[in-house]
Amino acid sequence: MSVNKRDYGDLLVLMALVGFTLWYLLDAIRVSSSVQNLLLILPLSIVVLVIAALEVGLRLKRGTLLIREESEGEALHRTLPVVGLFAAYVLSLETLGFDVATVLFIAAFLVMKGERHWPLLGGYSLAFGFGVAFFFAQMLPYPMHMLILPG
Amino acid sequence: MIDFVAVEQGLALLFTNFSPWLVVVPGIVIGLIFGATPGLQISMAMAIFLPMTLYMDFVQAMLFLTAIFTGGSFGSGIPAILMNIPGTSSAIATAFDGYPMARQGRHNQALGVALVSSVIGTLMGYVILLVMIQPLSLMVLKLGPAEMFAVILWGMTLIASLKGEQVLKGLMAGFVGLLIGTIGFNELGMARGTMGQTYLLDGVPVIPAMMGMFAASELFKLANKEFIVESKASRKVKLSEIFQGFKLALSYPWVMIRGGLIGVFVGAVPGVGSSVSNLLSYVETQRRDKDPDSFGKGNPKGVVASESANSTSEAGSMATLLALGIPGGGATAVMLAAFAMHNITGGPQFIRQQTDVVYAIIFANFAQVFLLLIIGLLFIPLLANIIKVPMRYLIPSVLVLAVMGSFGLTGNMTGPVTVLVFAVVGWLFRHYGYSVPAAVIGMLLGAMAEKSLLHSYQISGGDLSYMLERPVTLIILALLLVSLFGKRLLGLYKRSKPSVTPE
């Protein structure tokens, strides 16, 4: 069942898009205000700002500016830790190496999602993590940072 | 249109010796694996195996590379259907309905539909190439940057306005995507929006961004589910259902033909290719359908439209490569390198002097599609087992593949960080009803749109009204307006007309 909730996130996302557009336009003008440089960026930015104003105007008129229907099956408090774990994984790649960071990420994810069959958890994390890291390290022409396996 | 003497010589090139065929099966398997692995591109597979073609003669080398191309075109649809991760940008639209089909437990059917559409699409594309290679090459030359810009804007607007109720949010996502697509150096050497980061000088890496927005953000959403398909009975891999998918695909011949025609002509436009053709075909099919709201919810016509268009694009881009020596995308750029390695220059002279070789390549591709059907059938049951994997194992595994693949594309940490940033952006977009596909397509086409507009400006000597003097551009712009406001205008017209009741 969908529930109407008070939500500032929607407005924040809209403001972030407007903020990005304004920042990017100003940055492009700072680099050069020549027609060639702004040929697409200027009209496109204006269109984005007009659309944003229209969206806010329409929703104010309808009285739905801070109202959102909750999406089915997605609980924010259960999704945010996953996003955080993924961020930690990506940001630790350079420190822990692709091999160890991957093994730890998979193991942590499995624990977070309730896997308690420890031999399976350890076995899968090690086999998949090391296997994929090794495969990519061998396939790619660039060096991959590894802690244990050859890079 | 067809030079029959050259056809005979082409067939002789293929069948007097068995050696050209030895490389076809390995080529298709390589293409399938690379296409089906998120982050490993078809062009990457071709580039990795390009040095091997040094030991082959030219026909054999082309057969090997086109086999990778053919296998990859279908392969990229597999993760799009099973995991909502288009293996390449040419399978974006496949995910729109393929993935909802998989979530409804119709993954076998969806894969069957995709395989048959790919096979028939490739076949149709090469038949058109056989008949049309010369007139097509002349037509492509007539498309200028103004037309390319109009096509991009049209495609973009169509995608952005797909979500009926949230058109404004869709358009906004698409246009912000276009702006992001212009980050970095422009054609005049001016760097915008890089925040002083040298990594961004070449722009935001689009494929990692696409992986983040499409795949990672969707996986975040699914993190609380046990399986992709909740019902245990629906998770079975059944060959009979794959064959049902075959029949289902064949029951939409017009969708397939329309996709094929869009694919071959858009695929022939350099730089646009299959990334745009699958989307145009999808949108056009949805627009013409009696029940457009069923698209995006598991309508098999969406898969047929996308797969038939991206497969025929292969033939379209081959037309430009062979006839003009211009690569339509990454994969044909690698083929151009193979041309150079064998001291061959593509273009009108190549077609005139080596017509037999051109026909040999075309005929070999006819055979390749049947091999793809057999090899694809063998591979599908293996790959379809993915939906039996619990989400707690699947999600981190796919995220890892996306991170590694993105590292493979950029060669540094820019790829993984881009995946992370755009995963969060995509997740927020999904959460608040902004169109993720529109934003991705915008990013994909931003630089191309700016380049086309700049070239039009330069050609016109600074007078952009020149664009309005070109009839093809005007037609495309008119189509854009119709697709945006057509329904509304029609509604207004119907309301303003007094209703006539029979007496």
TrEMBL record, chain A:
Keywords: Membrane, Transmembrane, Transmembrane helix. Signal peptide: none annotated. Residues 13-143 form the DUF1468 domain. The chain crosses the membrane at residues 7-26, 38-58, 79-112, 118-137. It comes from the Bacteria. It holds the Pfam family TctB. InterPro entries: DUF1468. This is Tripartite tricarboxylate transporter TctB family protein.
UniProtKB/TrEMBL annotation, chain B:
The chain crosses the membrane at residues 18-36, 48-69, 81-99, 111-133, 139-160, 167-185, 245-269, 321-345, 357-387, 393-425, 432-449, 472-490. The keyword Transmembrane applies. Residues 22-440 form the DUF112 domain. InterPro entries: DUF112_TM. The keyword Transmembrane applies. Keywords: Membrane, Transmembrane, Transmembrane helix. It comes from the Bacteria. It holds the Pfam family TctA. Residues 288-310 are annotated as: Disordered. This is Putative tricarboxylic transport membrane protein. The lineage of its organism: Bacteria, Pseudomonadati, Pseudomonadota, Gammaproteobacteria, Oceanospirillales.
